[in-house]
UniProtKB/TrEMBL annotation:
It comes from the Bacteria. InterPro entries: His_Pase_superF_clade-1, His_PPase_superfam. It comes from Salininema proteolyticum. This is Histidine phosphatase family protein. Gene3D superfamilies: Phosphoglycerate mutase-like.
Length: 173
């Protein structure tokens, strides 16, 4: 079983890149609650892998130490973009619009797929819990797992959120 976990809510600081943000106090409490629920409902002794971004690593911390893999980081985009109508730009990107300086969506999906192959080897048959990010996860799910409406999916994600990947397609936990 694979569970993708979108990170909990970070302490936003527009002066620094989002890739360096840590969880807020509210985010830490939400991460603890999600991880407790995962242990109770689905995951026993999982292999933990995470994006190297602090907010993703810290979201999985209540489960234990995660090995970081660059392949699960968020979509690369200019830090200067963060203040400019961030939500509509993300929605347009997920709809297929290209933004100058943003990582090509095909490259995001390819690196995510590579990360999954490597993480599966690391898991050696155990359940796999991956700490990641909303756009990267949504792109991968929409291109490889039959996610019909990436905009609705991304818009409906909470911080944190978890999606099980089993057989037919993604299932929100």
């Amino acid at each position: 079983m694979i569970v993708l976990v979108r990170h909990a809510y970070p302490a936003v600081d527009r002066e620094v890149p989002p890739s360096t943000w840590h969880l807020s106090a509210e985010g830490r409490m939400a991460a603890e609650a999600l991880c407790s629920r995962l242990v109770r409902e689905t995951v026993a002794l999982p292999c933990l892998v995470s994006s190297p971004e602090p907010k993703a690593v810290q979201t999985l911390a209540p489960l234990g130490a995660a090995q970081t893999m660059e392949e699960f980081r968020e979509v690369h985009r200019p830090h200067s973009e963060e203040g400019r109508d961030w939500k509509s730009r993300r929605l347009a990107y997920l709809s297929g619009e290209r933004h100058e300086g943003w990582e090509d969506p095909d490259e995001v999906v390819d690196r995510f797929e590579t990360g999954l192959a490597n993480a599966r080897q690391l898991a050696a048959g155990r359940s796999l819990v991956i700490g990641t990010h909303g756009m990267a996860m949504t792109l991968w799910l929409s291109r490889t797992r039959g996610l019909d409406d990436p905009i609705a999916f991304w818009s409906g994600l909470t911080m944190p959120d978890a999606v099980r990947i089993d057989g037919d397609g993604p299932e929100r936990l």
